[in-house]
Amino acid sequence: MTSSLHPTRGKLLKRFAQIGPYIREQQCQESQFFF
């Protein structure tokens, strides 16, 4: 599988941060993200 289909957690957090200040990084877990 290519990495573009499964981005790393760090890349996901960066993308979510670009969307807006809605991500709550302290509450995020490995496969769960809180906004």
From TrEMBL:
One GO biological process term: positive regulation of DNA-templated transcription
First and last residue of the signal peptide: none
InterPro entries: Tscrpt_reg_Crl (IPR009986), Tscrpt_reg_Crl_sf (IPR038208)
UniProt keyword list: Activator, Cytoplasm, DNA-binding, Transcription, Transcription regulation
Transmembrane as UniProt keyword: no
Recorded coiled-coil stretches: none
UniProt key word tRNA-binding: no
Pfam families according to UniProt: Crl
GO function terms (MF aspect): DNA binding
Protein name stated in the entry: DNA-binding transcriptional regulator Crl
Organism: Proteus mirabilis
